[in-house]
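User: Please check C-alpha cell order:
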Amino acid sequence: GCGACASACHEGAIGIVNGKARLLREDYCDGLGDCLPACPADAISFEEREAPAYDEAAVLAAKAAKPVPAEGPVPPFANWPVQLRLAPTKAPYFDGAELLVAADCAAFRCAGFHRDFIGGRAVLIGCPKLDPVDYSEKLSEIFRRNEIRAVLVARMEVPCCGGLENAVRRAALLSGKALPVTVAVLSTEGKLLRQG
C-alpha cells in the first residue's frame, strides 16, 4: 500500500484502492513493467493469461482529461527549518499560529499543496516511515511551549502516513492542551480524499 508502483506506472493502470495497490485497467498496462522495480516489497508479479490489449489511445485520452492545476501566488509561511526533526521546540513563529504537520510526500504529490494547505500556517514536515524517531514527544513539547491555535495534518492515504497522524494526536493529549486537530488525507494521485 505504499503507492510506489502506482507512481511508477506512467499509464495509470495501477491505483490505490482502500490502501492497497490494484490493477485498475488492464488495457492501460503496456507490459513494460516499470512497477516491478519500484516495489520495495517485491509484491508485484506478472501472470500469463488472456487479457485485453494495451489501449494507447485510451491512456492518452485519460491523461489529457486530467485537470491542469490552478496557478497563483504561493502563500508564505514564516518558519525555517520545516523538517520536524530540526525544528526548535520554542519559536516566535509558533505563537498564535495554526500549524501544518505534513508528510514529506504530500507537497510533492499534490500540485496545489502550497495554495490549498499552507495558507499562512507554520509548517513542519516528516516521514514516520523513514525518520527513525517517534514524533509525538517533540510535537508535545512544541504544543506545550507555544500557543498554537490548531493543527492540520496533511498525510497520504498509505498506511505508513498513519504514524504521522497518530503522533500528532498523541502529542496533543500529552501536551495537556485542548488543541483542535484536523486531518486531510490525500490519494497517491494527489487528490483530497477526506478532511475532518
Notes: The radius of gyration is 19 Å. Helices lie at 4-8, 35-38, 56-65, 106-109, 113-118, 135-145, 162-175.
